[in-house]
Amino acid sequence: MASGGVEERFLDVLRRIGREDDSIEHHVLAFAGGPLEAAYREAAHAVAIGCDPETIERHLAAPYDLAHLPFERCADRLMPEIVARSAMPVVFGKGYDMGGLSRLDEGLRWRAEEAMLAACDAATFTAARLALGYDVPAGHTTILGDPADPRRLLQALQAACAAGPYWRAVDR
Amino acid sequence: MIPDVFRVIGSDRCLTAADAEAAGGAHPLTASLWEVYAQHFRCFTGATLDPQFQYLAHPATKTGVVRVRAGEVVLVVGTGPSLHAHIDALVRVRDHLRIVTSPRGAAALASHGIVPDLVLVEHQSAIHAHHTARTFGDRGLSVLARCPLVAADWRTPSALLSSVAPTDLFVPSRLPTWGLWPATAVAVALDAGASAVALLGIDFDLPTAPDPAHAPLRAVLELLAQLAAAPTFDCGAGTFERGWAAARLDEIGGARVWGRLDTEVHPAPRQSQRLREARGALAELGPILERAAALEAFALKARSHRGRWTPALEAGVEEIMRWREDRRVRVLLQESLGVSFLPRLWRIGIARSVGGALWRPLLLATHELIGQARALSWQSAEERAA
What we know:
With 172 residues, chain A is α/β, with parallel strands linked by helices.
């Protein structure tokens, strides 16, 4: 929850989604605390801070409709855990994180990231220029724009929820 | 000396504590080591993964270890706030400490006129390594050129080492690593025969308000203090609960140090030999790669037509999970191909209850595996041509 990075941009998106549709409940799992913690607690319905197995297990066991992994480091940490243990849809958000910048500016190909883009249910990119740097399947990707358009993000999340017949909606 | 079982567990070559003891020897603390490995690393440190195949172009001509003379104390220096708080004291006692640090630590020390005895280059991931190389390149930092010894692990980008003289550069052999450089530096110091090891600038939050992101490093450092035959001190924030006694820098200084650290080195494998080994690994993995490509194609098909073929997906998942039973395959996939997801899935396990969504773990594992194999094949051909 450091300030000035992807976390700050995602906080902004979270606030705007809340204004767009207040029926959506957001639970945020952060691996570490930081200056934005109070703001996240205000914007989300619940905030947990931890990266230990118990915390992750607890979230995997919860009846979430969808997991949104907003940048590559959290996706790298969580995606294997989620796809191995649950049918919960996964949306991978790509922005100008370390992997994205290195790929665009220096041609660094991080193949683990490519595998995550292939194995998620849907991907979002903040910019079309960024998405062009990746080989993503058609119908799988939404460009959010910068700043991210919350309505487009909501559509992508809802589409991911509805996409797979394997997915069973959970009554809350 | 650190018991070999520490290095063996950190290398991710073993799937159980019993395997680790069989490979690294029995030790009373093996159960504690394995508990930390399971709790904080999910039984996978990733410390030997080189997904960008930096080892093919690594410029070092030597590999080996450092030795510390009798009575010498090693100070491992990070860039946390306590470094700056104690920099004047460090300048005063510099001649009574061997200083080991990271490239960023060397840059921070240089601004105070301190040259470390050893720079250990080890990054937590390929992205972090790339970021350091880029930062040093962008800022024109040539601090490593002024350091008497640089121990750079095989995964280090050659661009980061371009200013280091061949005589000052080596690859640390049999590195006792769990992928977190301060812990590795402590283990190297203990293996080198330090009479005491101390920390400065390796700062954590207070035990009463811990930051979970620091928990793995804190846990490994506390284990190392238990394994150490020499005393261990924290000259920084002093926030350890166990093993690292709070101390002032002027309390821990040892014998006066002089000259360069001693080393025991031997020739590193030449680039041509590393290329041959890479091609050999690809050839040896041929049958696995063929099956992985077929399973990747199937998982992609299942992604497009969700909900079908669940029994076939289950069979595919069972097949990739069975590969874990062959130790040689595990080592080649991790250490030669730099694959990260399949080894983690081997340890996490894949629940059959995932049903029609099993295409996701199958695709995650095989997509990365095939991508890495293609990249290694291409890169080894490029290096050979060069």
